[in-house]
Design goal:
6-stranded parallel beta sheet; about 30% helix; binds beta-D-galactopyranose
Length: about 675
Amino acid sequence: MNKLAATPGFLHGGDYNPDQWLDHPEILKQDLKLMQQAHINTVTVGVFSWALEEPTEGVYNFGWLDRVFAEMAKIHGHVILATPSGARPHWLSQKYPEVNRVDENGRRHTHGFRHNHCYSSPVYREKVRQINTKLAERYGQNPTLLMWHASNEYSGECYCNLCQSNWRRWLQRKYSSLDALNRAWCLSVWSGLYSDWSQVLPPSPLGETKVHGMDLDWKRFVTAMTIDFYQQEIQPLRELTPNIPITTNFMADGPANQQYTPMVGLDYSKFAKAVDVVSWDSYPEWHNNYETVAETAMKTAYIHDQFWSLKHQPFLVMESTPSYVNWAQYNKAKQPGMHILSSFQQLAHGSDSTLYFQIRQAQGNSEKFHGAVIGHDGTADNRVFQEVATYGAQLEKLAEIKGATKDVRVAIIFDWESQWAFDRGGGFGRPTRLGIQTLQKHYAIFWGQDIACDIVTPDADLSRYKLVVAPMLYLQRPATMQALQAYVAQGGTLVSSYFSGMVDEDDRVLLGGLPTPLRELFGIKRRELDTLLPGEHYHVHYGSNVYPTHDYDEVIEAETANVLATYTDNFYQATPAVTQHHYQQGTAYYLAARMDRDFLTAFYAKIIAKLQLANSFVIAPSYEVSCQTRYQNGYQYHFLMNFSETPQTVKLQRSTLDLLTGTPVEKTVTLAKYGVMVLREKA
Ligand code: GAL
């Protein structure tokens, strides 16, 4: 068992930068006192400390870090130690300029900012190996070390000559011959055929931006390079500290443009295999002016569930803010109660931690107005600190839940490669592709009814799910189609839609309409796809209601499928819009049009009833009150969370024990605005 798994209780704490306060010993002393008051048990240190740890090449300075370990030991806390490769010291960029990235326009950047080194650079890799070895030698056996935090938020790409050679080598390994590459990327279009490997460059605004297969491979290559860099970065840690788990903090995209989704820049399903524990940095935009708090909660829940599903194991929230961020257009404070509610939501979906960026607010530089546990006032006498402290004390009462698992019967399929290809392809509606946003619309139906969902890749073991939701699975390999077929054949229920099975793994259109395995599975033929303009809607008659369509109406023909709904207008009037097909032991549904929540609610209601997916604890769940359950040692732990602006009464099937107050509770409970309860019962 690794050290994290063996550590009792949830982690509470976060990024701590004593290196910004070394000339203020009184502040460092005060930090320790305040951390204890806030029930903080974990600090993440050294994320951006390379310039202090190695002020000049080969000269190391760890005294300050020794003191952090010693101080944390005194308060029986843990240290998550970061490797510092997220930001280089000046001397490194100056002496070895090749460590700086070259952008897509071929410009080598000078030193500055962070997260921007060349992943290929042998010098950078060697320098990282050296500093990481020093850290592992010095702290690897220190009992206060809990885990490694490799680098920070890996992302981005480099276009230098070295990266270009690696790109060509990667392609040579993948395709073996130029002919194969020319075919895969369809390069006879626009005279793009290569006659020599040296002609192959990365996509760039100065050169090639239109070859979709190239773009897709470039993204695969960037993921492969990043993981390769990470593997080399952690090698000394693995060798010297085999029992200390290693993570790196993953990210989400947004919140911006009213969207909040897992980051798609790197294929985290691949990266997750290389880390011991998944962790991510969670910064939802609570109290925004474009959606209700419950909608923000739903999107955040989706991301938590996706990070859970990467390993089907508890993950860590590595960063979150106790109050506001500093990088949004408008950096709003969390309202009273929201900090505690949003933090419990992390645990409810499978996190074993609430960690913050950051413990003490910086005095200067770019993040001085980012929220923190200890603000510029430096006291416990403010609302943010007190909410953190209240939450910390509550966490201690819930220690038995750490490590608890989940029981999930519904899976939504998300594939990074399909998403990349789908976003890249021309045609259709550019602003209305909305791949992940559409998945979140389906997810919302289940989240709103307290039915847990996993978000998995197409190669997951689908047999563990009663329902698999796979709309708009644009890129499909033969193996994916076979897996979907096998899942339904063996009794599974599948929901798919327009935009599924359109291209192969090279982003080449699958010829002949809906590919045969999918045609057999859904019992339909695909005819054509109509892209709708903003504000243009047609209608679908389903049950006793008529629902508007948005963005896409696909025209299909039912071969062996039953028609559940038909279009009522436009040139496809009276043709099928929703079908159901009994395929061997299971059932496959096909949604030909994009429809809104009202339709999805009505559509899934029947499936939920048929498959008996309804939540077995909450009676008549409401969208604003979420219940998520974790399981451990014969107990179920229900997290009840009120994401509405008013008190809510919830009716429950059974009486339970309120773990936060230690008192039994009856079958009806009332949650205050933003209120939370954690209820325990025998499983
Ligand atoms: C994260 C980053 C932290 C800090 C934080 C501010 O993306 O890892 O170092 O900058 O954002 O929200």
